[in-house]
Design a protein that fits this description.
Blueprint: H1 3-15, H2 18-24, H3 29-43, E1 48-50, E2 55-57, H4 59-81, E3 91-97, H5 99-116, E4 120-126, H6 129-137, E5 143-146, E6 155-170, H7 173-181, E7 192-196, H8 201-212, E8 221-226, H9 229-237, E9 243-246, H10 247-256, E10 259-262, E11 269-278, H11 285-298
Parallel strand pairs: 3-4, 3-5, 7-8
Antiparallel strand pairs: 1-2, 5-11, 6-9, 6-10, 6-11
Helix pairs in contact: 1-2, 1-3, 1-4, 2-3
């Protein structure tokens, strides 16, 4: 095996595309396919599952990826160490973010980071919280942003932004009357619900809130699940049901009167948005720069 094969392998694992990898490496797709075929032959293992829609790592591929990524990164470091000191080198960082931090927090962070570190090329993968944790666990990315945590080993979480979760309902006469007359929210158990997908951190934290209120999830009428909060906001505004969402996402719609917003109790219900890294491997210099910036921006 050689470095070119490993570089192609790592890039395909990251972007899940042979054609995109070929473009980024300025190679033809048959050449990239030949690299992988030869690597699979030499290792005696199939590395990817390939369909017309997606490319995913096999179990053997996942194991090899951890080492191949380190080898490719080490090769880059060796190359950079011997470059002319006056020559500006471009560093690279791959980030995985769930939808709320990815949409409402990460853009501001990246804007500041680009001023601080102009020679860093950033690649952002947006998924749900479980997808972020999978990316970190499998070392497909350097850094993650999630709206929940896990007790599973292998992760380091740094909370940096407190986010309120709020109940939203259609802005209709019936719900305006409920909001004015009902001091508690026991009535929500009888409503139709719209939720994020099960891998979402917002969904996971919503279930915690309902459990604390004595409302079992299995008692709810779940009308629909969505992959993004924007679709939930539009559906609630149209009268399809009610939901629990991040205030970061809902505030503009509440202020416009598209939906009604309710806090949970006098103190509200909050969760932390976290930066997450793989505790098994040391963070790169670029990751440490990003984390220092976030600590400074959010005073944490």
């Amino acid at each position: 095996m050689n470095l070119k094969q490993l570089e192609a392998f790592v890039m395909i694992a990251n972007n899940k595309s042979f054609s995109l990898t070929a473009k980024k490496l300025f190679l033809t797709q048959p050449t990239v396919s030949a690299y992988i075929s030869k690597l699979e032959y030499e290792l005696g293992e199939k590395l990817f599952y390939r369909t017309t829609k997606e490319v995913t790592l096999t179990e053997a591929g996942k194991k090899i990826y951890i080492y191949a990524k380190d080898i490719v990164e080490l090769a880059d470091k060796i190359e950079n160490a011997f470059k002319n000191e006056s020559e500006e080198s471009v560093r690279r960082m791959v980030i995985s973010a769930s939808s709320i931090p990815g949409t409402y927090l990460l853009p501001g962070i990246l804007a500041e980071f680009s001023h601080m570190c102009p020679n860093v090329e950033l690649h952002v993968h947006e998924t749900d919280s479980m997808g972020v944790l999978s990316d970190i666990r499998e070392s497909r990315v350097d850094l993650g942003f999630v709206g929940t945590t896990t007790k599973e080993r292998g992760f380091t979480f740094m909370p940096f932004c407190r986010d309120e979760l709020v109940l939203i309902t259609p802005n209709t006469e019936r719900f305006r009357k409920l909001k004015a007359e009902k001091e508690d929210l026991a009535w929500i158990e009888q409503e139709a619900w719209l939720f994020r997908e099960e891998g979402s951190g917002t969904y996971k934290e919503s279930l915690k809130i309902l459990e604390q209120m004595g409302i079992p999830a299995e008692h709810l009428h779940v009308l629909a699940r969505f992959n993004n909060t924007g679709a939930i906001l539009l559906s609630v505004a149209q009268g399809s049901g009610i939901s629990i969402v991040s205030r970061l996402a809902a505030q503009a719609a509440i202020e416009r009167g598209d939906v009604l917003g309710y806090s949970f109790g006098e103190e509200g219900a909050y969760r932390w948005i976290n930066v997450v890294t793989n505790s098994t491997y040391p963070a790169t210099d670029v990751c440490r720069d990003m984390i220092r910036l976030i600590k400074k921006m959010y005073d944490c």
